[in-house]
Amino acid sequence: MKVKFLLFILLTACSGTYLVNNKDIFYDKNLEEAFDFNLEINSDNVATDDIQNDFPDISDNGFEITDIPPSDAIDNLTGDEEVDVTVDINCNLGISYTSLGVVEGYDPSKPPPENNPDYNLLLLGYDLVDEYKGLVFYAGDTDPLAPQFYTIFADMRTPVFLNTYRAHGWDWENNHPLPPPEPNPPNSWAVTVLGIEFEPGEIIYTPDSGYDIQYGYDAMVLFANDREITITYTRNDHIRVGYTIYITGICVESSLLNLYQNLNSTGRHDLPVVRGGQPLGVARGKEVDIAIRDTATFGDPRSCKDFWAGRCP
Predict the structure, then answer these.
(1) What separation in angstroms does the CA of 208 have from each of 69, 168, 202?
(2) Quick count: other Cβ atoms within 10 Å of Cβ 281?
(3) C-alpha 282: how far from its chain's center?
(4) CA-based angle 104:109:113, to the nearest 5?
(5) Please, what's the largest Cα pairwise distance for the chain?
């Protein structure tokens, strides 16, 4: 028989079980995703291939359906009921990471990285804006070494752009966010954060670039927690020069997150480094948000000339 399940995934940690009752959920797009799907339960309480229609990569990318209701409960359903299903996200990809020494250290006058909006994009925040959800072309110079967002995917596709956002400003004196600045290129843009489509559990890779910060590494991790990561394409523990990329909606790879936390707690003299194309983690839901700064100024992540080279319409 087929029963319609409403699946809620509460994304509060990198691993474990995420089960939320519909009545108790508080929806925050940066923490949760909700999906509808038809799940066929056979006589052995096994989810059959119908789930693959909506989640084609679910079995290969870190998801496991568990805690399916017992068969007698299934038999008593008449169809289209809302039933809780548990989903596990596996953020341990079995990858090892290393670190390099920081060249220019962290500014001691700034709050800790987790409380620093230059490092923590979810702390800074961003607002939904109604702008074009596609690649755009801007005239001007191009950096041939700039990181390319299509390399965030294994198949290097141009994804569906789900949502457009504009990042907040920040009041450093009073330590709180300000409304997003009005567009005034090249100082501020109409879109500075872009929501792109992933399959839940799909691996997110380090955007490749032409930069080499030493030994073939492209970038250094400035900040990471269980749902976001910030990397810089320099070896400086600040964002004042070079590119900084923010990715939210990610379950950061477990060993990478552990390495960052250990190095952060011991003075940040060294920080983790990653190569272009090296996995950073997996997508928590169907939307992952990306942003990029160049010498501390947010750019438009839709810019095809700069960050999607060869993809301009």
Answers:
(1) 44, 27, 17
(2) 30
(3) 8
(4) 70
(5) 66
The verdict on residue 312 lying in a domain is no
* Strand residue runs (E) in the chain: 2-10, 17-18, 32-40, 63-66, 86-89, 98-101, 126-129, 161-167, 169-171, 176-178, 193-197, 203-205, 219-224, 228-232, 243-248, 250-252, 270-274, 279-283, 287-294, 297-298
Residue tagged 């480094």 (tokens) = 273
Q: Does the CA dihedral 231-233-237-242 come out positive or negative?
A: negative
What's the whole-model pTM score? 0.76
- 47 and 151 both lie in a single domain: no
- Please tell me whether residues 179 and 50 are part of one structural domain: no
Assess if residue 313 is contained within a domain: no
Average pLDDT over residues 153-180: 97
Domain of 72 in residue numbering reads as 2-89
How many domains is the chain partitioned into structurally?
Answer: 2
Q: Say how far apart CA 226 and CA 231 lie, in whole Å.
A: 15
Helix (H, G, I), strand (E, B) or coil at 230: strand
Q: Hey, is 181 helix, strand or coil?
A: coil
- Shared-domain flag, residues 78 and 209: no
**Cβ atoms < 10 Å from Cβ of 214:** 11
172 and 34 share a domain?
no
Which residues, in sequence order, are CB contacts of 78 under 8 Å at separation 6+? none
Q: Within this chain, do residues 51 and 152 fall inside the same structural domain, yes or no? A: no
Task: Write out pLDDT tens, residues 25-52.
Answer: 222 333 333 333 333 333 343 333 333 3
